[in-house]
């Protein structure tokens, strides 16, 4: 019997191209970010409708602090506004909000909104929106290594039996599943320090579409691309294909 190919449970997106979208139109870069927020709302809804259980969005990297101060300020303002505006919607639609990254370094207003939204949606289980904020994989690994070393010193972890299963519990993503599909928009084909370890077995989809233009149809195309892949996790094709297929 044919069964429908599985929808990826966890989709992670590197949202790229806001600045180019604006520049192409003779607009300030922040207009691209403003439109990018509208895309966040639409794509999050589309992902949920399509059966995705978790969506992780790379919203601000540890490297993004290198941008001009006015752009950083505008991005933080947009984030704070988005969180304030969406909270009722998260509650109504059963969306849990989570974050990964060094959120303690974000402006106080953003932190307050994040705490409020995370606390108010903690009990919701149908769909989770994860915002990667002040996130960088190498920072995450360095922090995890420090915490792991402290746990070994305190006798809470065995000194001679470090394993991935033990170590991963010290990452920001300790209780999150790995992404099944990683999408990057705007034609760039880099991971840019995003979920480097967690994406070890992810499928990748790169599209030239700039983030403000990324639509529900583009998400559907990425998922269809994913569904054509054969995920073997180190096994052979014969092992993962049911007999007779
Ligand atoms: C990349 O485009 C985008 C970012 C660095 C920020 C993404 C942020 C948002 C979409 C808005 C805030 C997020 C939420 C969740 C409300 P770029 O500026 O690097 O584009 P470019 O490469 O064309 O310059």
Explain the overall architecture.
- With 245 residues, the protein is of the alpha/beta class.
- The protein has a single domain, classed as Undecaprenyl pyrophosphate synthetase (3-Layer(aba) Sandwich).
- It contains eight helices and six strands, in the order βααβαβαβααββαα.
- The chain has a six-stranded parallel β-sheet, sandwiched between helices.
- The longest helix has 25 residues.
- It starts with 9 loop residues before the first strand and ends in a 5-residue tail after the last helix.
- The model has no long low-confidence stretch (mean pLDDT 95).
- The structure holds farnesyl diphosphate (FPP).
Beta-strand segment tally:
6
Secondary-structure-based class equals: alpha/beta
What's the mean pLDDT score? Answer: 95
Write down the secondary-structure element order. Answer: EHHEHEHEHHEEHH
End-to-end Cα distance: 10 Å
CATH architecture: 3-Layer(aba) Sandwich
Instruction: Write the CATH homologous superfamily.
Output: Decaprenyl diphosphate synthase-like
Q: State the strand order across the main sheet.
A: 3-4-2-1-5-6
Shape estimate: globular
Number of helices: 8
| Range of helix content | 40-55%
How big a fraction of the residues is strand?
5-15%
Radius of gyration: 19 Å
Largest sheet: 6 strands, parallel
Count up the domains. Answer: 1
Q: What are the segments in which pLDDT stays under 50 over at least 5 consecutive residues? A: none
Q: Please write the CATH class name.
A: Alpha Beta
